[in-house]
User: Fold this.
Amino acid sequence: MISAQTVPTKPFSLKLAEELLANYGSPLYVYHSERLRKTIAHITQSIPYPCTKFHFASVTNGNLALLKIFLVSGWGLHANTPGDIYLGLTADFSPKQIVYSGSNLNRAEMEQVLKWGTATLNLDSISQLDLCCQVYQYIKPQLSRLRLGLRLNLPQLTGESRIGVRPEEFPAALNIVQAAGLKLNGLHFYRGTGTNATKSFTQVIEQLLAISKLLPDWEYLDFGGGFGYPYHADGVAFDWKDFGRELTKHLNALDRKIELIIEPGRAAIAGCGTLLAKVVSVKWQSGKQILGVDTTVANLSVPSVHGGYRKIVTWADSKRELYSTDVCGNTTYSRDYLGRNCQLPALQTGDIIAILDVGAYGYAMSSHFLHRPRPPEVLLEGDTHRLIRQREDYRILLNNQLFEQRG
Ligand SMILES: Cc1ncc(COP(=O)(O)O)c(C=O)c1O
Assistant:
């Protein structure tokens, strides 16, 4: 047992949390549109370089209502998969606003990506580049301009990664695109997700620019995503202003004007999402509080299945004593912990908990593992709230199954 020293941040008032759960049920994903808009503005304003385009990485969150907020804020979309492109087009992004930087498409998928008119493709291997150029030959009558880039693989800069092409492969890549009547227009850099150290990005700028110049028709640099988010209140936060200043300084010093593409995922959307749940069981084991809540890691797989930390708060009086607490999901799966060793006051069944910063890789990574239908999603806008994805019911578990019904 320790005493409360800090007042935990609440995502919104208890009254609103109760109203939301009364309206939409528990558990519930809630997104705060104002917070999202503020983050988008902060990131956008941090990079003064005039030819900068921001593309939201929808791998982190594919809800159409949220994608629209990026669209009206002037951002494009970054697609990891054809599914991302499909969602982006449905949210009204034009194919020109979509940058694909994924991996390992088969021929049918490559055809689909090009048929959709996706304007910029950053390819991850010589084979993918070759496939793209082959498909381009018979799809080209349906296409407007296609820009091609290479994803860079250079362990000193990108870390050890399976993704990307090494500079020594550039000549082979150039031969392939030239034979297809295309050019290599861009270089794509990805540092790896959740990087909070700003230096990891700024200290590689010069080398990246030098490598980009190996491409004779170089016209854009895609600086990727991977920008971290400070899930721990006292953790290191990625410094957008510092990053933007450094990048702008180097790009302005170039002898040509190139386009800069930035594709943040987590950094843009993590902070606006909260997962609300209710306590359904309380027990005490050797002084530790064991809370059972009505959600599961299948609704939020990141922390306990993939590692990581998400702060869990309650609305209990901040002066109450805190106890080491495990917050357990509503299955017996051995990793069904939403949080371990959290510092929470003694709670009762019916109390509400809020799992913070779940806007990125939250709903997007939820699944039907453990056979629980997924929660709904709600958007807070000013004083109002609206449903932006319905709660699933048990019928979802039968989707696409072929079976004979009795009777
Ligand atoms: C090429 C690329 N860009 C951007 C992202 C988004 O990453 P993050 O959420 O770490 O910014 C990803 C994630 O997989 C990615 O592969």
